[in-house]
Amino acid sequence: MMTPYQNLKKKVRQVWMPPPELTVSQWADTHRKLSPEASAEPGRWRTDRAPYQRGMMDAVNETGVREVVFMTSAQIGKTEILNNILGYFVHQDPSPILFIQPTLEMAEAWSKDRLAPMIRDTDALTELFKDPKSRNSDNTLLHKKFNGGHLTMAGANSPSSLASRPIRIVLLDEEDRYPTSAGSEGDPGSLAQKRTTTFWNRLLVSASTPTIEGESKIEARYGQSDQRHFFVPCPACGTFQVLRWAQVKFDKKQPGAAHYECEHCKATLQDSDKPWMLSRGSWRAQAEFSGVVGFHISELYSPWVRWGEMVENFLKAKRLPETLKVWVNTSLGETWKEATEGVDHSGLISRKENWGRVAPVGVVVITAGVDVQDDRLEAEIVGWGIGQESWSLQYHVLHGDPAQATVWQELDRVLGQSIQRSDGVVLNVGCSCIDTGGHYTQKVYEYCKAREHHRVFAIKGASQIGRPLVSRFSRTNKLRVKLFTLGTDTAKQMIYARLRIHQPGAGYCHFPAEYPEEYFRQLTSERVQTRFINGHPARHWVLAKGHRNEALDCRVYALAALYILNPNLDALVQEMEREHLNQKKPETAQPEKGNSWIGFDDWNFN
After folding, report:
1. The whole model's pTM is what?
2. Which of 399, 482, 509, 541 could be disulfide-bonded to 473 (CB atoms 3.0-4.6 Å)?
3. Domain that holds residue 123
4. What is d(CA 295, CA 288) in angstroms, rounded to the nearest whole number?
5. CA 85 to CA 486: how far, in whole Å?
6. Is the separation of the CB atoms in 369 and 562 below 8 Å?
């Protein structure tokens, strides 16, 4: 039994002696608890569950490391890796820490949904942070103090949240989703990195799924690293190798039965082999170390994703260029090579079709896009089918002063018409988008406000790269009109990728025989140019000299209308087929010809 003096001595030692030196993975295995609302596997953290995470976490403990880069797919656990690195420094090596999310809203959500539960359930952290509800608390949603340091959470889109204060540890989550500039201040990642310069033991950790080849921030950081890959042994021959998508073998009729083929002995490997392989794997650098450690890993390694599941997702994604792009980024953790050359308009002309004045049977939804010029309105009526296969049904040039009512009344006739399919089914325009970016913004607001119940919406373009095709509407204008923001870069990339599809099916674009060459020139009138902003490459759409682009703009707005409507095209096809079987096919009625029809005789291109 200890004497009172020995007991006192032990307590003093516990208070003043530094904690035992641990690596990040050791700290996580010892202290970290996964919260039920933030994890599918709550409870004690086990690095052995995904052994590749050990090297990724422990890189911050390696001598001479000033930057750690994670270029990964989804389902790898990179967010929890960042959380563990954060918890380690708070508990083991208190420091000023900055954690940056793509937006301020995402930073707030991360603080509430991920950080707060982690602090609550990880005892080693609970005792270090004051209760934010306490009267003496220094903690807020985006700023928390602890002994020896503080944690600031910021949004890359908010210059004020990146306001200068010395920071030792910077954590960047999903850097490829950051804006090119934080306001007018410059690149958010570079701004954050500058704040670490006064610390000799500074550290920057960046984690992200990649995006576009040549533009991806995480790709650029990884290219400056020692470029580590995770090598695993084949259970049959023992040869270490990097898991690659090309070695996944499958039958399209039974994608769930996919297997992995060893690239050396050709042995068939199953998902059940994966735990054995991962437990014996190791990270190996492919480039020289210069202070930056980089890790690349794909979903092929994930213990939470079957190879067959990846194949199923691939087969769904490959129908359209934009969904395949997402799959390459998020499942393989690789950049997507974007086609930068334009589309030859003559190739589109050569595939024009003659379907008459009725819509083809494949059309199940109709949308419209309207462009406002100083002396006219231009509108395209687009039909959509399974896989977003599209048919340009009509193109209207409505001459008149947009400040007067007449031209808007003509637009009413265009948007309010019924269009019959060749099998007798009658469809209406389901959703329309009208651009507000010209000189008649107020007129567009007034027109749309009175017709919102017909799903006629105002839209404004935003050129920022990576924006969603359509963002949630706002009502910040005086008329309280629903105003949707359009990611024009995203929309144009999507349209140009679809114009390059040569076989009818998902994404293919059909055009009627009566369209003139000028329509196709306008549709293909823009090119992508790369410019450098704050030292980073960025795409810009440039209109070819002497060309106009109203047809392209109208198609962009019609596509936006489809995404606002968000129909289940497959289900609609099945529903229409059932209804059609129960009805007698009516006689085909020819639409009345008038000024609201295509009207190419009045299409003045000069």
Report:
1. 0.81
2. 482
3. 4-227+287-297
4. 13
5. 37
6. no
